[in-house]
């Protein structure tokens, strides 16, 4: 797979996860950055793929990868104004 992917879930009881997912997509949309939204609730294999790419067997959405490279912590990149580098677009 190539390009920017945001792993998310449409099925969660966690307000924190919902809020984080909304923030990620709102910021990416606002900056007109193209990405593919991958809903891990549709297939356990997608959840396992997300966790393998993140290098954390307990990772929860949202997780962001560019190609096969895990991007890291989105909030810190936004706060430090390093979003392009974080997304590996620069």
Short description:
The chain has helices at residues 15-30, 44-54, 74-79, 83-86, and strands at residues 4-8, 36-39, 63-66, 69-70. With 90 residues, the chain is an alpha+beta fold.
What does this 3D model show about the protein?
This protein is an alpha+beta fold. The protein has helices at residues 15-30, 44-54, 74-79, 83-86, and strands at 4-8, 36-39, 63-66, 69-70. The chain has 4 helices and 4 strands. Helix 1 links the parallel strand 1 (4-8) and strand 2 (36-39). The longest helix is centred in the first third of the chain and has 16 residues, at 15-30. The chain is globular, with a radius of gyration of 12 Å. The mean pLDDT is 89.
Give me the secondary-structure topology.
Layout: E1 4-8, H1 15-30, E2 36-39, H2 44-54, E3 63-66, E4 69-70, H3 74-79, H4 83-86
Parallel strand pairs: 1-2
Antiparallel strand pairs: 1-3, 3-4
